[in-house]
Specification:
CATH class of chain B: Alpha Beta
Number of helices of chain C: 15
Number of domains of chain B: 1
Order of helices and strands of chain B: EHEHEHHEH
Number of strands of chain C: 9
CATH topology of chain B: Rossmann fold
Chains: A alpha/beta (383), B alpha/beta (143), C alpha/beta (373)
Number of strands of chain B: 4
CATH superfamily of chain B: Lumazine/riboflavin synthase
Oligomer: heterotrimer
Distance between the termini of chain B: 34 Å
Largest sheet of chain C: 8 strands, mixed
Radius of gyration of chain B: 15 Å
Largest interface: A-C, 76 and 80 residues
CATH architecture of chain B: 3-Layer(aba) Sandwich
Shape of chain C: globular
Strand order of the largest sheet of chain C: 3-2-4-5-6-7-1-8
Order of helices and strands of chain C: EHEEHHEHEHHHEEHEHHHHEHHH
Strand order of the largest sheet of chain B: 2-1-3-4
Number of domains of chain C: 2
Distance between the termini of chain C: 48 Å
Largest sheet of chain B: 4 strands, parallel
């Protein structure tokens, strides 16, 4: 499905082209509504709007400089209890689309009547950098993204190697769009039908774009591996991890903004961790002191154990941390390793079953303790 | 007249024992009342959670009316006393934040036998809300 | 006139020694106070100390550090929620944290039993990001200079500079800090309650002279006027009106961190996280039909106004909400402003008197006649 795409003229830039295309789609009733980032009234941020009034597209942006809300959260809120009658196109970044796919597998979103539309992504600015001076931030973003310079972006955006063509219904390929045009590439029959109804023939060769994407993916993969190696050296062992999270104030922002963390009441805020005073005092006596509230590391590692197999390294967690802890960097490292163990890539395809739900009869023997060999050694020896 | 007559949408939380009965009697007696009050029957004005009022406004309600028994006559003894405090608190919040909602929110006492009073309250409040016009956040997208 | 004690040591040192002695002598089983965590940033967190060695190791305990990683009132609630303390525990908390705890006790979210509450007159705290960026150490000298003069350092959070409740009211022991020029060499503490006095009397190693004095000195009164003036200015600066609120909360990302750190917001499942707010697609679609567009996730302004309806009556202006907001929204300024109005309506001061009922839980038969029309 990805070897040919439709051409979308983009003389006035990618934003204008995509917004214009979406407007046309709305007017032609190809979609009933769009879900996309729109600038807020004060002009100092962006919010996801579900819109069917084309006038609202004036301030819309398919690639805003920041990601205050992870798009998959918005998609999940909207479709948690099912799809309505309206056909909705959600314009999101690749990591948001991947998170939406994971949430669908987790039954927290329904994509039947929803089209995921993505664009090649240069990353987003850290929210606090942008908020200092939104206008300057926007300009900085435009400048950097034009040259695919990821230096001003979120740390995990800087090492992102999945910035293009996720399993979305339509993907706008912008890499190397030198001649004032971009590609709209269908990723599913649903996507193909959209292009058909818009009279956009899917007949342009994508070789050039695909080659550029591959090149950048390889470069980014190398950067990622290096960054992860460096990070791992820094956080290995209980000391390293304790240092990283020493500033944590247990606000749980990271959990709240994470698209994959969907529990209404997080285990780490539940009655399970609300204990009688004797418990805290006894634990304190063991070490002489107990950080309060306790269980900071338990929260982070525990949260990781809950969601790491669906983590898409979007970086929303780090953006939201008031103490500037590199949460996303740590989690992206954990995610890569954990998902690798299962040969799984979060958000790659709706058809890949969740690793903790699926199983094979014959696998992972290396984590098993062979009972007979350990506890009945003599029998084994004598046998 | 070219101008369309604006019929406000007023969400009315009426307590079962007094206000709702009065409203019902007013209706049955064919007393003149504008069709603006959308009645939600609650067992007691004390059941009205401030979130109900906020929700009604934020979903585009032009006005919110809470009506119950006169203080001292509450079917459950104390409910309306709590309702009065909650209403006072809400009005304080609205006023401090400069929100028009303060003027669009009314608490009234109407006993079961005061059907004409209910009609007056409904008429009077509808007029007030009409003067204020439709809710300014009726079509507000960024709520 | 409360009984006081003057110790010929700098205030920080004197209090650390006092706490250490309380632990060593077994008069208390534990001390809750700010402490240094490990980590290159010199992170700070509240710690429950049970061993005096841990207390003094490497300057571990930092009782009066101008930093608030969590509202200790919420922490005291966490400590005593599932049962009162069987034996005494001392806690060093700031006035707003103490007031928050009293409000929580009124809501059955904690118990005052066996708690030795130590507080101080407060010169405010620095915002969280100052700590995150390692800027705390370098600011300390000028912080304490300001405190000695009865002033508030300009880098301290705005809500602290606007706080008029910086003299604690329900402490067992209050340490005088604001306006005490000889803080570095003398420590004056007031034994506000019999409990406070009992813990301190005859404590080994504690050398101090008794005194009778007033906590509310002239510098305190001066500081109060200054802060009251700044408070008025700060509140006047809040942009009011529906459109202005929409603009202010335009940046809100609905993370609800403000709720998580708020000591008064104790609900284990917030209404706005509950199933009530998980809407059917038909609801979204009908709103969309009417308005042409709607923000997702929904309820941005509803959450703020709803939370105001729930907590304004007990808001102590501790400022945790603004500190933790990833979108730099001045939540605490808005909540304190509304809180002040709502509290004035009922002539109620949160945290002042644990026996005073929360205004929405009680009523007078004759009152507020102007509300019903």
């Amino acid at each position: 499905m990805n070897d040919k795409g439709a051409i979308l003229p983009a003389e006035n830039g990618v934003e204008a082209a995509v917004v214009g295309w979406l407007k046309e789609a709305l007017n032609k009733k190809v979609f009933d509504a769009l879900l996309m980032p729109v600038q807020v009234p004060a002009g100092d941020s962006f919010a996801y709007l579900l819109l069917q009034n084309p006038a609202l597209l004036e301030n819309g942006s398919p690639l805003p400089p920041v990601m205050p809300v992870q798009g998959a959260r918005a998609i999940s809120r909207l479709t948690m209890r099912g799809n309505g009658s309206k056909r909705i196109a959600a314009v999101v970044r690749p990591c948001e689309a991947r998170a939406a796919i994971e949430l669908t597998k987790l039954e927290q979103a329904h994509l039947d009547n929803l089209w995921l539309i993505t664009v090649d992504c240069p990353g987003v600015l850290p929210l606090s950098d942008y908020l200092d001076d939104p206008a300057a931030g926007a300009a900085r973003f435009v400048e950097a993204s034009q040259h695919w310079d990821r230096a001003p972006m979120r740390p995990v955006c800087q090492i992102c190697h999945r910035f293009s063509m996720p399993a979305s219904d339509l993907h706008v390929g912008t890499l190397g769009s030198a001649d004032g045009a971009v590609f709209v590439i269908p990723g599913s029959p649903k996507g193909e039908r959209v292009l058909e109804s818009m009279d956009m023939p899917v007949d342009a060769a994508l070789d050039d774009w695909a080659a550029q994407v591959k090149e950048m993916e390889e470069a980014q993969t190398e950067r990622r591996q290096q960054a992860h190696a460096d990070l791992r050296a820094g956080i290995a062992g209980p000391d390293g991890l304790l240092d990283v999270f020493s500033d944590c104030i247990n606000c749980h922002n990271c959990q709240r903004v994470c698209p994959v963390c969907y529990c209404r009441q997080c285990y780490f805020e539940s009655a399970a961790l609300k204990l009688p005073p004797e418990n805290y005092l006894t634990r304190s006596k063991r070490k002489g002191a107990l950080r309060f509230p306790p269980d900071t590391l338990l929260f982070h590692i525990g949260r990781a154990s809950h969601m790491i197999l669906s983590c898409v390294s979007c970086g929303a967690c780090e953006d939201a941390c008031p103490m500037s802890i590199p949460v996303a960097q740590v989690f992206s490292l954990l995610a890569d390793r954990a998902q690798e163990t299962f040969g799984y890539v979060a958000g790659k395809s709706l058809d890949d079953p969740l690793p903790l739900v699926a199983y094979e009869m014959d696998e992972f023997h290396q984590v098993e303790q062979p009972y007979v060999e350990i506890y009945h050694k003599r029998e084994v020896q004598d046998a | 007249m070219e101008e369309q007559e604006f019929t406000p949408k007023i969400v009315g939380f009426l307590c079962n024992w007094c206000a709702y009965t009065a409203a019902d009697t007013a209706g049955v007696s064919r007393l003149q009342m504008p069709p603006s009050v959308m009645v939600v029957r609650v067992m007691c004005s004390g059941r009205v959670d401030p979130l109900f009022v906020l929700s009604a406004f934020l979903r585009g309600g032009d006005g919110v009316l809470v009506a119950g028994c006169w203080p001292g006559q509450c079917h459950y003894q104390k409910g309306n006393f709590h309702a009065r405090r909650r209403a006072a608190m809400l009005k304080s919040i609205f006023e401090t934040l400069g929100l028009e909602m303060g003027d669009r929110f009314r608490l009234s006492w109407v006993s079961a036998s005061e059907a004409p009073r209910f009609a007056e309250v409904a008429k009077g409040f509808t007029e007030e809300v009409k003067q204020l016009g439709p809710s300014p956040i009726w079509d507000e997208v960024f709520l | 006139m409360p009984e006081g004690l003057k110790i010929n040591k700098g205030a920080q040192e004197a209090v650390r020694e006092l706490l250490c002695s309380l632990l060593e002598s077994g008069r208390v089983n534990g001390v809750l106070a700010l402490g240094r965590t490990r980590g290159a940033n010199g992170g700070v967190a509240y710690s429950l100390f049970t061993d005096s060695d841990a207390f003094v190791a490497d300057g571990a305990a930092l009782p009066f550090l101008p930093f608030m990683p969590a509202n200790a009132g919420g922490l005291l609630s966490r400590l005593t929620l599932k049962g009162s303390l069987a034996g005494p525990v001392a806690a060093v908390v700031k006035p707003c944290e103490l007031r928050a705890f009293i409000e929580l006790v009124k809501r059955s979210q904690g118990s005052l039993d066996n708690l030795l509450l130590i507080s101080s007159t407060c010169g405010g705290v620095y915002p969280l990001d100052v700590g995150a960026n390692g800027g705390l150490e370098e600011r300390l000298p000028r912080y304490w200079e300001a405190v000695k003069q009865g002033e508030v350092d300009s880098d301290v959070r705005p809500v602290c500079r606007a706080c008029v409740h910086f003299v604690p009211e329900n402490a067992d022991i209050t340490v005088a800090l604001v306006g005490e020029e000889d803080l570095d060499t003398q420590c004056t503490l007031f034994l506000d309650t019999e409990k406070g006095a009992a813990f301190v009397k005859g404590l080994e190693g504690l050398q101090g002279t008794s005194l009778s004095g007033e906590l509310e000195t002239e510098p305190i009164q001066r500081s109060h006027s200054q802060r009251a003036a700044y408070r008025e200015e700060l509140f006047a600066g809040v942009e009011v009106g529906m459109q202005e609120l929409i603009r202010t909360f335009g940046r809100c990302i609905g993370c609800h961190a403000c709720k998580t750190v708020c000591p008064i917001c104790y609900c284990s499942l917030c209404y706005f996280d509950s199933q009530d707010c998980e809407y059917l697609p038909e609801i979204y679609e009908s709103e969309l039909e009417r308005k042409g567009g709607l923000r997702l996730p929904p309820n941005t302004v509803f959450f703020q106004l709803g939370r105001l309806a729930h907590v304004s009556v007990s808001c102590v202006g501790c400022g945790m909400c603004t500190d933790v907001c990833p979108a730099d929204i001045p939540v605490s300024t808005i909540f304190s402003k509304v809180g002040t109005s709502v509290q004035a309506l009922f002539d109620y001061q949160p945290g002042k008197d644990v026996t005073e009922e929360i205004p929405l839980m009680t009523f007078e038969e004759e009152e507020l006649a102007q509300v019903a029309t």
